[in-house]
Amino acid sequence: MQKYNEPETAITENLADEGNATDVAVPSSEASKAAPAGDMAGTQSELPSTEVIEGVYRQAMYTQRFRETLRSTVFTLVVVAAAAVLVAVLLLPVLRIYGTSMHGTLDSGDIVVSVKVSDFETGEILAFYYNNNILVKRVIAQSGQWVDIDQDGNVYVDNRLIDEPYLMEDKAYGETNIELPYQVPEGRVFVMGDNRSVSIDSRNTSIGCVSSEQIVGKIVFRVWPLTAFGAVH
Fold it and tell me: How many angstroms separate the CA atoms of 206 and 149, rounded?
C-alpha cells in the first residue's frame, strides 16, 4: 500500500509546483472549508421591505400623475391663448387710440374693444382702415342721405339738425372742402370726429366716406385707462 500511495502524492505535489495555485484541482469540500464565513454571508443581499416597495410605487405614481397634469394644463393654456388671439383678431379687435380727433370721447392712449358688425346706426363710433392706418370716427349719415353743415358747425341730415350730446368740444366747420349739401354714396357712411376743429374726416375729400370693405368694427368698450373703464357712447 505504501508503494501505491507515494507516486500519487508525488504527482499531486508536482502539479502544485508547476501550475498556478488557482488552476490546481482542489476538492470543493476543502475550498468551502477554507473560505471565511464572512465571505459567504456577503454574497447574500437582503430584499427590501414591503413598506419601501410601497413608498417607491407611490412616488412613481405621483410623478406620473404630476407629468400628466402638467401636460394637460400646458395644452389647455395653449388652446385658450390661441382661441383668445383668434377672437381678438377676427371678432373683437383691440385698438389703441392715437391723436386728438375724438378728444372728449376717446383720448390718445385709450385702449378700446371693437365688435365686427355689418350695420351701423347714426351716432355710433366705428374704426376703419385708411392708408394702412386705422381711424376712429363717429357715424353721422348713412348711404343716400344728404348732409349739410353751416359755418357754425351745425350738422343737418336730410334738412334736419341732428342732436349731438356726445360733443365735448365746441362745434366747428373744420377742414371742410366737399360741396355741400352732400349726398352719401351708396354702400358708404359719412363720418366725423368729435373734435370738429381738428378732425379730418368725411368733410374732406382726402378721407371721404367709408365703405364697408374699410370697416374694422364698432367701438363698444374701453378697457384702459381703468378710471374710464366701461362702455363707449
Answer: 18
- 49 as an active site residue: the answer is no
Residue 140: alpha-carbon gap to chain centroid? 37
Output phi, psi for 231, to 5 deg. -70, 150
Q: What is the pTM of this model?
A: 0.62
CATH code of the domain containing 198: 2.10.109.10
- Is 21 part of any domain? no
H/E element, 53:
helix 50-86
Domain assignment of residue 76, given as a range: 53-91
Quick check: helix, strand or coil at residue 63? helix
Residues 176 and 65 grouped into a single domain = no
Question: From residue 167, how far is each of 195, 197, 218, 229 by CA, in Å?
Answer: 8, 12, 18, 19
Judgement on whether residues 76 and 106 belong to the same structural domain of the protein: no
> What CA–CA distance (Å, rounded) separates 44 from 173?
104
pLDDT in tens, 28-61: 444 444 444 444 444 456 777 888 787 887 888 8
pLDDT tens, residue by residue, 85-119: 655 555 577 889 999 999 989 999 999 999 888 78
The tally of domains found in the chain comes to 2
Active-site pick, 28, 72, 101, 211: 101
Query: Contact 99/114 with Cβ under 8 angstroms?
Result: no
In which element (H, E) is residue 12 found?
helix 2-18
Q: Is 123 helix (H, G, I), strand (E, B) or coil?
A: coil
